[in-house]
Design goal:
This protein has 1241 residues and is of the alpha/beta class. It is built from 40 helices and 30 strands. The strands form eight sheets. An eight-stranded mixed sheet has the order 5-12-13-11-10-6-9-8. The chain has a seven-stranded mixed sheet with strand order 19-16-20-21-23-22-28, sandwiched between helices. Helix 2 crosses helix 3 and helix 10 packs parallel to helix 17. Its cofactor is Mg(2+); thiamine diphosphate.
């Protein structure tokens, strides 16, 4: 008998893992095994790890039922078991289906073990476990189970919700013991799934974590399950348990779980039907009139319009005055007609293909924006509704809309989002697929970017173009990205209008209460293809077979209300016919419209800005010296003592150097920028600077926000304390995002023209990830949508040996997108030529080289009578370059922005002696100045800086061409030939030359050869390329040049040594920099004072700079914590190769092998490339263009093109002149001369 029993139990033991705990079969098995085990122990079986610790419920229950019918039909052992007094059939009550703790195995005699020190009992044995106090543990366990079931519905009930109107994806109903079908499956209830199939009449006390009881404290299990099913597994699926705030979760529970909280009155239902009639009727009318036109209709998700109207109504009732809507193309026309109340006749006129009366390219009708201010009839309050124009890039309007909303809040003084609210309408595929959604979501709680809650509405068609969700995302829902900001997500069936309206109400109330984002996922379908001309049966045949059989939502809801007696059939038909008449009248009116205006679809009007303003008047940009001193003194002063602010010692040294500059009346880059910001703040202009690390500056040059060294979150910004009535100044480090943050700042600039809004890239290269915003919004926004913007992009740019991704701001891309004609010479005789040229171009591109020009350029952005985006390529090494400084007189009232800066040295004073006229732009000018002096060609080579590249300064360029009639014309750039400004300036130089009939010259190219990579990462190759560029312009250094350089360096070193001995210091010499370079040669005697690593050491009072200190100091490649940090750029690679010679230091000899120049593998020659044709050929071509005559005489040849010197020569020429030094043979280049006797900070 025992063997038979063993065989039976061995078979059923394997079934233990089937998870039958809590079921009726489990109870049978537990009671059977309890009896078996007790019997076995009586018979002397002491298997502590008994085979009877598991069971097979199906097997035992089958044997038991078989035994009841015929006791002799089972084995003798089972007959003995079932006949014994220890066996009784279990009753089906929930109290007998508690956790397994009720039916534990009989206790086994425990062996006393030695307890840990301090835990021994009086008898010497281990501490005994405390006995359980007497209580009804079974009942407690059952209540715990009920609480777990409620929590399961709250957390995972949405998994069983009936959300799909097509029924393709949905829960499978299961029948309970009372015959009720329930949606909650095992994936919802998990281990408690079987509990719902037991006695449903047992009454339980409701826990405090639910509000389903309302005023009732006790409910039966059946009522608990029924209410939870209606709330969480009906047509609404709520995801909110990921929210960490108990206040928010309790608020949502109260709104969803309270009995009667989702009920609607008859009047409310009738209003929903009327709005749904308009939404569906508009799409049906367009389908009837324009059956083959693309309109991206809303059929299948028609309820979205009533849901948005409910949000608008409730928001205005809460005090919102301005609502901004961003959306893609689907449903846009319906939103314009029924939400914004744009005249339907104007919308229909867009289908007729009419001629526009104003300039611009326009856009397709389903991309247009609108601005409407109207009376909300439900709340009797005025509301402004703006739909922002959007390209086909779907979700990229999101950050633009958020920036515009934030700017409106600032203008209204709204600090909590109570009067301005953004709504973003998403598509299901784009919401989960486009990264800008994630980037925009992460702006929601950042202090300087938050909009205090955005309503996100997803028009979920369950298909992206032709791609099923299973192939377009890995997450269960398209809205899972919203969980990163703990936003509640309300999934709702689009064919249940009442549920959709309730979700809309809860969403706007949640946003009003908590100022946080909330998502409504309207799960519907797309009745047509991606557009109306598309055939969806090609790719989704089964889905569209169901769609064709499905009644529209309007018909389903009308039938429901007619059945409920809310409306009659005749009333519904009257609603439909009434709206059809409205559309027919609008259709007739649209036929009378003969022309359209792009400006009537503008989404960001600036009322009053253009009225009475002379757009062609350029106001002066200079300011008084007193204002400069006030701003400079405040900007260079530490926080006042009363602030008890502990400032970093390095910052104090920087401030001291700024103070010295103010006393010397000279400004470096950071001070010139501060002059621009401070003067605009004084004039009441709001200034906003945003981007990665802008508070300090990527290159540690700005330091606008000072941080307390011993207290967290204590900061000081001196520009906030300039004047008592100044405008606010906002400077903030952004998230590590270029696309969303640049889009945000562009939207911010759209809201008001009376603000200077800037975005600075950490490096110019990083604008790559924001290319969609640049191309589709900034570059073309005014042309497409008549929408001006004055946003400023500051892109650090220059070739300084920092690698391919930290060098180029991609000037060529911005210039290529400029819309000025290169073959048309403008009318430069026009008195308003400069302003007209700025007004007619799509944006302004500059590559500035002086702090004064930066100052005037930024102020000009606000002083113009119109707004244009400004793309400025900011410097890196020039931030501290001793020559890149401007005297105060270049900022005063008599100064202005210089589009080009001519040569004011000896070459400019004697133009007839000039043999070469070199045009350049940006930082390369300072390299050319240094090399021109080293080659002793100051009188024969003129250097002209083109500060404003676009629009091209034809008038000033022509003047320079006439000033140097005998000079050879060169364009020099440090970028590669297929990059930089060359491809832009070349045809414009030709146009300027062709203007003069007597001109036979052409401009030749001097720079790096074409390359796929923006820059090399090899310092040796970088120097070789630089040397080849210089050699192609100035030739090789002569022995006399080299002797002169060596003598000058010796003189500087002697002077530095004398200065160091006269000023002894106890500080140790500076440690070698981290970039791998050898430290500057230390002078004998006491070491000089160690300069701050982020700023150059100021020359001594004698005007000479100390030997061994590089004028362009270490530029740390601050690529942010999220990106891998690059090695610090040393003095020789942080500025330019010429800085190696100026500083007297160079890379360690081991870095540059003697034969590396010849053995270095290189795909292309480091020699700079020329035009591809000889100058004579180009001149002949130009001559033929002019008169068709014979070719003009060939000018003097420049001589053979020389390659870079050998490494031996390079090592020999390491010591070179310091940029910061002064001597009798060189005058300071630039637009103004500095007093050489004055010390330079």
């Amino acid at each position: 008998m025992n063997q038979c029993r063993l065989r039976s139990l061995a078979r059923i033991r394997r079934s233990l893992t089937l998870g039958l705990r809590g079921t009726d079969q489990h109870v049978l098995a537990r009671q059977a095994l309890r009896t078996i085990q007790t019997t076995s122990q009586r018979r002397g079986v002491h298997d502590l790890d008994s085979f009877a610790n598991g069971c097979s419920a199906a097997y035992i229950e089958g044997l038991y039922n078989k035994w009841k019918r015929n006791p002799s039909s089972v084995d003798e052992s089972w007959n003995e078991l079932f006949s014994s007094n220890d066996w009784s059939s279990p009753k089906r009550s929930p109290l007998q289906v508690s956790h397994s703790r009720k039916y534990r195995r009989p206790p086994v005699e425990r062996i006393a073990v030695k307890a840990r020190s301090g835990e021994r009992t009086a008898s010497g044995g281990a501490s005994a476990a405390p006995a359980a106090p007497p209580s009804d543990w079974k009942n407690i366990d059952d209540h715990h189970v009920i609480q777990a079931i409620i929590r399961a519905y709250q957390s995972r009930g949405h998994l069983a919700a009936d959300l799909d109107p097509l029924g393709i994806v949905g829960p499978k109903k299961r029948t309970s013991v009372d015959g009720t079908q329930r949606h909650a499956a095992r994936e919802v209830l998990r281990q408690h799934f079987s509990y719902i199939f037991n006695d449903l009449n047992t009454v339980f006390k409701l826990p405090s974590s639910t509000m389903i009881g309302g005023d009732q404290e006790f409910l039966s299990l059946k009522e608990i399950l029924d209410r939870l099913e209606r709330i969480y597994c009906g047509h609404i699926g709520v995801e909110y348990m990921q929210i960490t705030s108990l206040t928010k979760t309790n608020w949502l529970r109260d709104r969803f779980e309270k009995p009667g909280g989702l009920d609607l009155t008859k009047e409310e239902k009738k209003l929903i039907l009327e709005r749904l009639t308009r939404s569906t009727g508009f799409e049906n009318f367009l389908a009837k009139k324009f059956s083959s036109e693309k309109r991206f209709g809303l059929e299948g998700c028609d309820i979205m319009i009533p849901a948005i109207k409910e949000v608008v109504d409730r928001a205005t009732d809460h005090g919102v005055e301005s609502i901004l809507i961003g959306m893609a193309h689907r449903g846009r026309l319906n939103v314009l007609a029924n939400i914004c109340r744009k005249p339907i006749s104007d919308i229909l006129s867009q289908f007729h293909g009419l001629q526009a009366t104003d300039s611009g390219s326009g856009d397709v009708k389903y991309h247009l924006g609108v601005f409407q201010e109207r009376l909300n009839r439900q709340t009797n309050r005025m509301v402004r509704i703006t739909v922002v124009a959007n390209p086909s890039h779907l979700e990229h309007v999101n950050p633009v809309l958020l920036g515009k909303a934030r700017a409106e809040m600032f203008q209204r003084g709204d600090t909590c989002g109570s009067t301005v609210m953004p709504i973003i309408i998403h598509g299901d595929a784009s919401f989960s697929g486009q990264g800008v959604v994630y980037e925009s979501m992460h702006l929601s709680d950042l202090p300087n970017y938050t909009t205090y809650g955005t309503i996100h509405i997803v028009s979920n068609n369950q298909v992206g173009f032709t791609t099923d969700p299973r192939f377009s995302r890995s997450s269960r829902y398209c809205t899972d990205v919203a969980k990163v900001v703990n936003a509640p997500i309300l999934h709702v069936n689009a064919d249940d209008p009442e549920a959709c309206i309730q979700c809309a109400r809860i969403a706007i109330d949640y946003r009003t209460r908590f100022k946080k984002d909330v998502v409504i996922d309207i799960v519907g379908y797309r009745r047509n293809g991606h557009n109306e001309a598309d055939e969806p049966m090609f790719t989704q045949p089964l889905m569209y077979q169901r769609i064709k059989k499905l009644k529209p939502c309007l018909q389903l809801y009308a039938d429901k209300l007619i059945k409920e007696g809310v409306v009659t059939d005749s009333e519904f038909k009257a609603m439909v016919s009434s709206y059809e008449k409205i559309c027919e009248d609008a259709w007739a009116k649209s036929k009378t419209i003969k022309t359209i205006k792009y400006s009537s679809w503008i989404d960001s009007p600036w009322p009053g800005f253009f009225e009475g303003r002379d757009r062609l008047k350029l106001c002066p940009t200079g300011i008084s010296t007193d204002t400069l001193k006030t701003i400079g003194n405040m900007f260079s002063t530490p926080p006042p003592p009363e602030h008890k602010f502990e400032t970093h010692k390095g910052i104090l040294r920087i401030l001291a150097q700024r103070t010295q500059m103010v006393q010397d009346k000279v400004a470096d880059w950071s001070l010139g920028e501060a002059f621009a910001f401070g003067s605009l703040l004084k004039e009441g202009i709001h200034v906003r600077l945003s981007g990665q690390d802008v508070e300090r500056g990527t290159f540690s040059h700005r330091h606008h926000v000072l941080h307390h060294q011993s207290e967290d979150k204590v900061v000081y910004n001196s520009l906030d304390h300039l004047y008592p009535d100044q405008a606010p100044y906002s400077v903030s480090n952004s998230s590590l995002s270029e696309c969303a943050v640049l889009g945000f700042e562009h939207g911010y600039s759209m809201a008001s023209p009376n603000a200077l809004v800037m975005w600075e890239g950490q490096f110019g290269d990083f604008c790559n990830t924001a290319q969609c915003i640049i191309d589709t919004f900034i570059a073309s926004g005014e042309t497409k949508w008549v929408r001006q913007s004055g946003v400023v992009m500051l892109l650090p740019h220059s070739m300084e040996g920092m690698g391919p991704e930290h060098s180029s701001g991609r000037i060529e891309r911005f210039l290529q997108m400029s819309d000025d004609d290169p073959d048309v010479y403008p009318d430069t005789c026009d008195a308003d030529f400069v302003a007209r040229q700025l007004m007619n171009v799509n944006w302004i591109v500059t590559n500035l080289s002086t702090p004064a020009n930066l100052f005037h350029c930024l102020r000009r952005q606000v002083k113009m009578g119109f707004r244009k985006p400004l793309i400025n390529f900011s410097p890196k090494s020039l931030l501290r370059h001793p020559l890149a400084r401007s005297p105060f007189k270049d900022f005063n009232e008599c100064s202005c922005f210089q589009r080009i800066i001519p040569d004011k040295g000896p070459a400019g004073k004697q133009p007839d002696c000039v043999q070469k006229l070199v045009f350049c732009s940006g930082k390369v000018y300072y390299d050319l100045v240094k090399e021109r002096d080293d080659h002793e060609q100051v009188e024969t080579v003129a250097l002209v800086r083109v500060e404003q590249l676009c629009p091209f300064p034809y008038d000033l360029i022509s003047q320079q061409l006439e000033l140097y009639p005998k000079a050879e014309l060169l364009w020099a750039q440090e970028e590669h030939k297929n990059m930089g400004a060359w491809s832009y300036v070349q045809p414009r130089f030709d146009t300027a030359l062709l203007k003069n009939e007597n001109e036979s010259r052409c401009v030749s190219y001097h720079g790096r050869p074409p390359s796929a990579s923006p820059a090399t990462g090899n310092k040796v190759q970088h120097y070789n390329e630089y040397k080849a560029l210089i050699t192609s312009i100035f030739g090789e250094l002569t022995p006399e040049n080299k002797k002169r350089i060596e003598d000058r360096i010796k003189k500087q070193q002697a002077k530095a040594k004398a200065d160091a001995q006269s000023k002894p210091s106890t500080k140790p010499p500076a440690a070698p920099p981290k970039g791998g370079s050898s430290p500057p040669p230390a002078p004998t005697g006491p070491a000089p004072r160690k300069p701050l690593i982020s700023l150059p050491s100021r020359p001594p009072r004698g005007g000479k700079q100390r030997s061994g200190s590089a004028p362009a100091p270490n530029l740390v490649d601050e690529d942010s914590a999220a990106r891998n940090r690059e090695p610090d750029a040393s003095a020789y690679d942080g500025a330019s190769p010429s800085a190696w010679k100026r500083s007297g230091s160079a890379p360690a000899p081991s870095v540059v092998p003697r034969a590396s120049a010849s053995r270095s593998p290189s795909r292309k020659s480091p020699s700079p490339s020329h035009d591809g044709i000889s100058p004579s050929t180009r001149q002949e071509s130009l001559s033929k263009k002019k008169s068709g005559s014979a070719p003009a005489p060939t000018p003097t040849s420049r001589g053979p093109f020389r390659t870079a010197p050998s490494n031996t020569e390079f090592i020999k020429r390491r010591p070179a002149k310091d940029y910061g030094s002064r001597n009798e043979t060189q005058s300071t280049p630039g637009e103004s001369e500095l007093d050489p006797t004055k010390p330079q900070p």
